[in-house]
Amino acid sequence: RVAYVNGRYVPHAEACVHVEDRGYQFADGVYEVCEVLDGRLVDERRHMDRLERSLKELRIREPMSRAALGHVLRETVRRNRVRDGMVYLQITRGVARRDHPFPKGDVAPAVVVTARSIDRRKGGKVAEQGIAVITVPDNRWERVDIKTVSLLPNVLARQAAEEAGAAEAWFVDRDGCVTEGSSTNAWIVDIDGRLITRPADRGILRGITRTVVVELARREGLELVERPFTVEEAKRAREAFVTSATKLVMPVVRIDDAVIGNGKPGSIAGRLRDLFHGAAEIAS
Ligand code: PMP
């Protein structure tokens, strides 16, 4: 395996960043995870749009052109011989003596890209069973709309899920409404078959998979309401599912101790999963 680190492709086992990288010291950086399907990037344009927005919000300079970055992503995928999997991109504010304010002068942002294969059949098998989620208080900062590498609350929530025998944790705001998962967006289907997901305001990350599923649902003539929903509502829902670039559309069959629907993945989630790649933008 190889990784791209600041202009070079190096063996993955030896890929290092500097001890004074601001990503390492302050989590002062952003990232993207893009699905790789048949060696091609899924929804690259949207991921690049979101990346540029994240960089702008944190006032980190764009390290290279979009075309150049796209080339690095593809080259990393190619050199790792990834057919199905994901490519990870991280950009930090760069290396400077540890001090909270932005470094003075022209410090180059640090860029790292890795890629790895994911067994698609495994994901498919999990989706046939559905996953369990737990709920935890949303104790994150107010700018979760920025895709930063500052993910400690997400890490702790996900670990709590693992220890509870669940695959994901849903964050819950002070009003008892679900915001999103630790690395996924959250959806339910109500008794009338309406899709419900929280609006992509500042309470959540605007997932690329979420955006594509919103478009797909409209195209399929499914009724969709973008509004917050409570944990109680979710526990009474007909279906529930999560979306992300790596989990795609993943049915949820248990929330805390509540069984969702008949305890099997719902038909709408299944349909959206089956149709997902037909709605995504996949470069040729
Ligand atoms: N919310 C959070 C907090 C996430 O980390 C992710 C995955 N990066 C998502 C939602 C889903 O986003 P996407 O569909 O772009 O993978």
From TrEMBL:
Assigned keywords, A-Z: Amino-acid biosynthesis, Branched-chain amino acid biosynthesis, Pyridoxal phosphate
GO biological-process terms attached to the record: amino acid biosynthetic process; branched-chain amino acid biosynthetic process
Recorded GO MF terms: branched-chain-amino-acid transaminase activity
Reactions catalysed according to its record: L-valine + 2-oxoglutarate = 3-methyl-2-oxobutanoate + L-glutamate; L-isoleucine + 2-oxoglutarate = (S)-3-methyl-2-oxopentanoate + L-glutamate; L-leucine + 2-oxoglutarate = 4-methyl-2-oxopentanoate + L-glutamate
Gene Ontology CC terms, in alphabetical order: cytosol
Enzyme class: transferase
Keyword Amino-acid biosynthesis tagged: yes
Highest taxon, organism lineage: Bacteria
EC number: 2.6.1.42
Needed co-factor(s): pyridoxal 5'-phosphate
Pathway(s) this gene product operates in, as recorded in its UniProt entry: Amino-acid biosynthesis; L-leucine biosynthesis; L-leucine from 3-methyl-2-oxobutanoate: step 4/4; Amino-acid biosynthesis; L-isoleucine biosynthesis; L-isoleucine from 2-oxobutanoate: step 4/4; Amino-acid biosynthesis; L-valine biosynthesis; L-valine from pyruvate: step 4/4
Family: Belongs to the class-IV pyridoxal-phosphate-dependent aminotransferase family.
NCBIfam families, A to Z: PRK06680.1
Protein's job: Acts on leucine, isoleucine and valine.
Entry protein name: Probable branched-chain-amino-acid aminotransferase
